Backbone:
């Protein structure tokens, strides 16, 4: 639900009609969207978001209106049917479990959504935990999820979970929060605490969704290729910073989609690392074509657990760059993480085409694809499962460790 919460702000004002939020809480097989994807339907039929790209939206819309009318949450399952693949189901062959929750002005769910949707400059990571097993209580917020301990989480979950299930629920929720992910957790009730009667007849089911700040994409080198790349990666949700030591080229008017800084590249990256503003989701593209910038920067970048490190240049410049990095003591394991020449082999020539090539390699790396071929030439799953324990939309940088074949952009 977190990906549509900002769009829900106009629906949460005084006098607005009720609505329902339909959220994917389980998925198997070939499905178009991951757990946590949400769609909202207002009582007047208006829609925000999408669950499947079209194949179950009509049925979910009807279920949402029914939930608003009844005032009760419900769970629906949509899957492939051999008898009629294009009926209410997923013709792609997967199965989606969807939790549909009505939201009325002033109820618990509305109060949580109002808090999430309220403008908050500099809001850090946040998580929402919802009970989806039909219980009356609905949702709570957890601020600073990565730093929250089990005691903090247990305190927050008291509005959702009774004492007998609290410890088991808190332990599992903390594991999801520390991974920065989205997942459904099931906590069986334990022994009654302090002599209280057992308050849970069945295991508790919670949906945990974590919203992290936008991942960073650091582009070094202010040129036409950087301008095209900035525009493309912004579409993937990155916060983009463009750095160049040459003031005449690092003109913010040339790159309106990026934060533009005049700074020596390796010094800038070192400062950002020291300030804690670089993490395992950060991607780096080096487009300067100048050894005095490239080598010190790549020596530092390849020693960090970044999601992606790529450098532009011909195969000859790549060979010279690698030799210089080896001379600086960079290990073979670190060099294997370098995407150089940067991008996939698409035959790209223009800045816009090269940007597509780099962006495509970035997407492949994000999803752990070690080799990229046309979908029409494969018969495996279209959508990659995220690595276990990693964020659903931003897998851990370990997925990038196996390099793609060296290819020119």
Residues:
């Amino acid at each position: 639900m977190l990906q549509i919460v900002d769009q829900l702000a106009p629906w949460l004002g005084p006098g607005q009609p009720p609505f329902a939020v339909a959220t994917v809480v389980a998925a198997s097989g070939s499905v178009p969207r991951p757990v946590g994807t949400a769609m909202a339907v207002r009582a007047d039929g208006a829609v925000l978001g999408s669950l499947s790209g079209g194949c179950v939206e009509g049925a979910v819309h009807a279920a949402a209106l029914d939930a608003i009318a009844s005032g009760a949450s419900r769970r629906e399952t949509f899957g492939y049917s051999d008898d009629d693949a294009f009926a209410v189901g997923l013709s792609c062959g997967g199965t989606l479990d969807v939790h549909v929750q009505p939201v009325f002005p002033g109820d618990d769910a509305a109060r949580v959504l109002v808090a999430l949707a309220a403008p908050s400059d500099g809001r850090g990571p946040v998580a929402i935990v919802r009970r989806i097993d039909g219980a009356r209580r609905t949702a709570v917020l957890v601020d600073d999820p990565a730093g929250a301990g089990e005691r903090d989480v247990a305190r927050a979950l008291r509005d959702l979970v009774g004492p007998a299930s609290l410890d088991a629920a808190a332990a599992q929720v903390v594991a999801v929060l520390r991974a920065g992910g989205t997942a459904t957790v099931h906590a069986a009730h334990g022994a009654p605490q302090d002599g209280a009667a057992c308050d849970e007849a069945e295991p508790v089911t919670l949906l945990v969704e974590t919203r992290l700040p936008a991942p960073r994409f650091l582009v070094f080198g202010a040129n036409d290729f950087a301008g095209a790349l900035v525009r493309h990666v912004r579409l993937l949700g990155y916060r983009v910073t463009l750095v160049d030591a040459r003031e005449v080229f690092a003109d913010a008017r040339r790159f309106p989609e990026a934060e533009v800084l005049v700074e020596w590249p390796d010094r800038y990256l070192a400062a950002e690392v020291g300030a804690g503003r670089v993490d395992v989701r950060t991607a780096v593209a080096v487009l300067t074509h100048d050894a005095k910038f490239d080598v010190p920067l790549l020596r530092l970048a390849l020693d960090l657990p970044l999601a992606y490190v790529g450098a532009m240049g011909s195969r000859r410049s790549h060979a010279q760059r690698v030799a210089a990095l080896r001379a600086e003591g960079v290990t073979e394991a670190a060099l294997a993480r370098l995407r150089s020449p940067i991008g996939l082999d698409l035959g790209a020539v223009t800045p816009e085409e090269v940007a597509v090539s780099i962006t495509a390699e970035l997407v492949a790396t994000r999803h752990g694809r070690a080799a990229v071929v046309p979908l029409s030439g494969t018969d495996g799953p279209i959508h990659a499962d995220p690595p276990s324990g990693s964020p659903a939309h931003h897998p851990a940088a370990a997925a990038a460790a196996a390099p793609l074949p060296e290819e020119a952009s």
Q: What stands out?
A: The two ends are 37 Å apart (CA to CA).
